[in-house]
Design brief:
2 copies of one chain form a homodimer. The first copy, chain A, is α/β, with parallel strands linked by helices. Chain A contains 8 helices and 9 strands.
Chain lengths: 214, 214
């Protein structure tokens, strides 16, 4: 069984491996990948063993075989579709960002309440009025929902997505979503992350000043 | 000493408390806040004790006093400034998103390589050419940097921010940043998060189908 952290790390390794492949690197040692991913080499070896990959002491792991093996776990044989709700500044930025990034995972439908934003194609994705959310998600068999609506709308939108068949949510709205236990929610809480960065920046700054004085 | 998770939770509580305040709720019990934040009541009480707040069994905690106490830890007496680098789709979305959200924490300068995007004000924030990054960050005494440039540029930008005095980074570029140990990095890895949501959505979907069959 794979944990959330395990899946997260495999996704990170794959991104790094694509980078190595582009640089025409054919083999990689666990300690190299570990240093790029900022984890331990033992961790890398455990994670890769779980997708059936063992390196050799001399050459390490074959980069393209690793990418393939991680893909067998992370990707579906058929491309998987996601729905995005809320085509504001952030929503359109995400449509652009994810467009063509992963062949096996694409935003297949976007929704908004604003009539000016719908019934057109944006960054390769068709935009629908939000009233059609539940039916479109069901018809297109989408299992992943990206929530980029204001906090006050997010819970209702999450419920409509789940009714349509969504089982995984990526939530950018600054609020907690309350959904059934068998629906996975990944929160992207940008205000919290910025406040954290600001807090630890101040702490490090104080420490540095204290070192300079002493 | 506050851990990363501790600071993250306090930031979440504060956002929820602002919501309660808007709804004119004056007192809140730890179990109510716990259920909103999806943590245990014991966790809430521990976290709040660490900022010097104790509720009473009858009325719970005074909402406005809690907000104030959390603010004393998370905020500076003086407003704290952040720099954003990369005014693309995502960068402009973040400028709009953070504009006016926290009085004590604001993006005070944005940078881009594109001459068409600089020497103007966007969502209340002045935009500069990227050559002025290090000097402007130093002159404005900014300690937090938000990185929204492509992966290939991110490391160089992070180094320039750190040379200018930044001690906390919020990184949206899909790459690991290698900086000095005393610089805090919070990664916002959207591809990883979407892949995680997709993986667990599939798993829950399979489980649900298995239950239906059996």
């Amino acid at each position: 069984m794979h944990s959330q952290r395990n899946i997260g790390r495999l996704s990170v390794y794959r991104r790094l491996l694509y980078g190595l492949l582009e640089a025409r690197t054919e083999y990689v040692h666990s300690h190299t990948l570990a240093s790029l991913a900022e984890v331990t080499a033992a961790q890398v070896r455990r994670d890769l063993m779980a997708v059936g990959c063992c390196g050799t002491p001399r050459r390490g792991y074959a980069v393209s075989f690793l990418i393939e093996s991680i893909g067998e776990l992370l990707d579906t044989p058929e491309p998987q579709g996601a729905a995005l709700v809320g085509i504001g500044n952030l929503g359109s930025a995400l449509l652009a960002y994810f467009s063509g990034r992963r062949p096996k995972l694409a935003i297949m439908a976007a929704f908004d309440i604003d009539p000016a934003k719908v019934n057109r194609v944006m960054h390769g994705c068709r935009c629908y009025p939000v009233e059609k959310l539940e039916n479109t998600v069901r018809k297109k068999d989408l299992r992943v929902g990206i929530v980029t609506v204001p906090a006050s709308e997010a819970q209702g939108i999450a419920e409509a997505l789940v009714r349509g068949g969504v089982r995984g949510l990526l939530n950018f709205a600054p609020t907690r979503l309350h959904v059934a236990r068998d629906v996975f929610v990944e929160d992207m809480d940008m205000t919290m992350s910025l406040e954290k960065a600001a807090f630890f920046a101040r702490r490090e700054d104080r420490k540095r000043k204290a070192r300079r004085v002493s």
